[in-house]
Amino acid sequence: MEKTLRIRRPDDMHLHLRDGAMLHAVLPETARHFARAIVMPNLVPPVVTSTQAAAYRERILSALSQGADFRPLMTLYLTEATDPDDVAAAHGAGIIHAVKLYPAGATTNSQSGVRDFDRVRGVLERMAEIGLPLCVHGEVTDPEIDIFDREAVFIDRVLDPIRRATPGLRVVMEHVTTSDAVDYVLSGDETLAATITTHHLIINRNHILAGGIRPHYYCLPVAKRESHRLALRKAATGGNPRFFLGTDSAPHPDHRKESACGCAGCFTATNTMSILAHVFEEEGALDRLEPFTSLNGAAFYGLEPNQGHLTLTRRDDPVRWPEKIDTGDGPVTVFDPGLPIHWHVDD
Ligand SMILES: NC(=O)N[C@@H](CC(=O)O)C(=O)O
Ligand SMILES: [Zn+2]
Ligand SMILES: [Zn+2]
After folding, report:
1. Could you give the domains of the chain?
2. Which of the residues 11, 12, 180, 248 is marked catalytic?
3. Binding site for Zn(2+), residues?
4. Which of 23, 39, 108, 195 gets mutated to test ligand 1 (max ligand atoms within 8 A of its CB)?
5. Most buried residue, 138, 287, 322, 347, by CB count within 10 Å?
6. pLDDT tens sequence across 128-184
7. How many other CB atoms are there within 10 angstroms of residue 147's CB atom?
């Protein structure tokens, strides 16, 4: 039976748009459904100054097709040399909406990230004063720590000390993958929130490793065991306004993923809204899809909800999407949820 759901147009609060040919190829995939996105700054070289953020925003706007209704919300990449005055000026001018913390070496293009957290204390204190959110890739990089434990250890060793030392700092734990992170968010106050990706609601670590290694399911933080996936589903669909969508859609050309040392990232921009409707229906929480995708994130970032709407219809025939997106850097594989999805996004 057909079922219809009308929601405010969604925001993607964690997105990789890249640059150049890749930007041109992937931007329409997001702009088709999403009205805004928090755009990650991990370009090569990274977006570290307000001038660079403004220039990157212009490149995104000029890559948009005519008539597209999409607003990029820019971020700065925090380094040990970041100038608190530049951050505050960029925020005051409306150029940036967050600063992104990558522990050096934690993920794709994080080599310019932070090694000594004491060195960014001044920036964090200024951000707390002006109410500018810090988005955190929450994994320790200590090689002694098992990759499946790196998020939980980061909370104890790095994040909780930073939050205690910087009262009032608004923090978004990005792409949470564990029940530990969910519990930590629930234990926090209104200054603490988390994004949850689409793919972490679908896959656990077996999808990556059992029966053959599947590079297109490899991302960071890596998917954990099933109990964690279930905790994420509960958090996403549970109605707490401090959990919201950040797809972490992260395009890499196939030749970089299907390799002896494949890089991390799942590309989900194309089919995210259909997959999420499926997940929320399975959890008996379709009425909570709109808060998760379109209201909670905006509220945390101090933005009005989008004016436009998106309509999803459940039909008997499954949704079709291209297996790959062609880009100037080679094909990018679209995330495969591994099951038929029946929620069509209406044009
Ligand atoms: N999530 C990923 O696996 N990859 C992201 C980086 C990130 O968000 O950590 C990327 O830029 O490719
Ligand atoms: Zn990350
Ligand atoms: Zn990311």
Report:
1. 3-345 (3.20.20.140)
2. 248
3. 14, 16, 100, 137, 175, 248
4. 108
5. 138
6. 999 999 999 999 999 999 999 999 999 999 999 999 999 999 999 999 999 999 999
7. 12
